[in-house]
Amino acid sequence: MSPQIAPLAGRREWIGLTVLLLPLLLVSMDVSVLYFAVPFISLDLHPSATQQLWIFDIYGFVLAGLLITMGALGDRIGRRRLLLIGAFAFAATSTAAAYAHTAGALIGARALLGIGGATLMPSTLALVRNMFQQEKQRATAIAIWTAALTSGIALGPILSGFLLERFWWGSVFLINVPFMLLLVVLAPALVPESKHVQGGRFDLPGSVLSLGAVLPVIWGVKELAANGVSARPLAAIGVGVLLGAGFVWRQRAAAYPMLDLALFRRPAFGGAIAVSVIAMFGLVGFAIFTTQFLQSVLDMTPLKAALWSLAPSLVVGGAAPGAAALAQRGVRKAHLVCGGFLIALVGFAALQLVKATSPLWLLLVCAMLYAVGLVVVMSLGTEMIVGAVPVEQAGAASAVSETGTEFGGALGMALLGSLGAAVYRHEVPVPAGLEDSAGTIRETLAGAAAVARTLPGPAAHDLLTSAKAAFSTGMHAAAFGAVAVMALGAVIALIALRRVPQVAADPAPAAAPAELDLVA
């Protein structure tokens, strides 16, 4: 009996993909959309320093903590159904955030917004896996999905700056509402429903353990990045690891586990998650340096810096589709992923040439190189993850992939950020007579700039020049650390993905798998 051939997607599926990009763009933009809005929120709501941090972080914490739960839930109740529920929730909580009158209300709305986002992200990728079952088409669709995800993160500050020049701070949340309503109208007509009919009872204890494992680890890593090594974040990470072990034990023992742990024995799954985590480590972990270099070293306004940061996107946008096309031409994915890491390595290594007095184009070329390489890795990694699992487990697999990238980004900020900050503190000189301001000067480049504004012209110039040079040295150290991690990623790709087969053509379309409940 010949093996069943995957069905080909048609026009409806490709139009449906564009519909699925709506929630993906908005959820990824909401990670970065507050960058410019915080000063306006502070003037209006007067949050404490702790509340301001929670306004920023609570969305990402809740989102990361619930991804696995929502992915498994979508597999059971239907991914499109969960997507529509999430769209309503995202629209409602965006409205609540826009009209929040206190800092506490905004924190609560951002937490609820994270719940809505957690329903949307794994659902979109799982539905893409269901709609595009032929391998070549799926690779192209996921390349587009990856490009939309990275574009959303980059566009968040741009959209925020544009809206804040014309409207009040709540507009950065309210912009979500019309797009979510559009999703609710279009998805039922263009996106087919899919679920695992025999998914069994939902594993509530496993859900609690997954939330308890992910949340303290992500929080602990971000705290280490922001405030350095201390007992509380280390204890939180330890608790998360213990609860993670409990989650693994639960998945082994449960009659209907949220996640089939046997998937991790597949090289295309476990290896792809590993390289995706490393890619996000470099991409997110280094973003703070390029952003600060544009704003604090080159003295750009936030909006101008955000617009210039989009310049590499003209090339980066073609990286994911280009990698998918090469894979379809028979280039092994292990070699492509390794090549992506090596391109990123060259980009990070070239950052050693960037000084405070360097031309802007040099920084942008370096950023373009490492972003191209890492987007190639992320695109191929995501495609291998969802392609390695049965369609009925696509939601849980998508959630694991996205949880891994959240963890990789947080770890990158912690390790690369801490390395750069440590070198900056060591290198920046404190001028004579400013010993009382030494802590502020050594804390950040922005702190040194604040002190410089209180000094007469020549003294201010000397302090800023030395602080910018120290920041550049810290950036070089972080880039050197990223080079080492990219080299490790290249080696892991060659070893862990060596058994992943080349893309094989599906000669003819076939019917959808019988075990799925497909509703037009």
The assigned structural class equals mainly alpha
Order of helices and strands: HHHHHHHHHHHHHHHHHHHH
CATH class of the largest domain: Mainly Alpha
Q: What proportion of the residues is helical, as a percent range?
A: over 70%
Distance between the termini: 29 Å
Seen as an oligomer or otherwise, the chain set is single chain
How would you explain this protein's 3D organization?
The protein has 520 residues and is an all-alpha fold. The chain has 3 domains: 10-198, Growth Hormone, Chain: A, CATH 1.20.1250; 203-257; 262-504, Growth Hormone, Chain: A. It has 20 helices and no strands. It has helices at residues 11-32, 38-45, 49-77, 79-98, 103-131, 135-164, 171-174, 176-190, 204-227, 231-253, 267-297, 302-309, 313-316, 319-328, 333-350, 360-387, 394-427, 438-443, 445-452, 457-496. Helix 4 (79-98) packs antiparallel against helix 8 (176-190) and helix 15 (333-350) runs antiparallel to helix 16. The radius of gyration is 23 Å and the shape is globular. Residues 505-520 have low confidence and may be disordered.
Could you give the topology of this structure?
Layout: H1 11-32, H2 38-45, H3 49-77, H4 79-98, H5 103-131, H6 135-164, H7 171-174, H8 176-190, H9 204-227, H10 231-253, H11 267-297, H12 302-309, H13 313-316, H14 319-328, H15 333-350, H16 360-387, H17 394-427, H18 438-443, H19 445-452, H20 457-496
Helix pairs in contact: 1-5, 1-6, 1-8, 3-4, 3-5, 3-9, 3-17, 4-5, 4-8, 5-6, 5-17, 6-12, 6-14, 6-16, 9-10, 9-17, 11-12, 11-16, 11-17, 11-20, 14-16, 15-16, 15-20, 17-20, 19-20
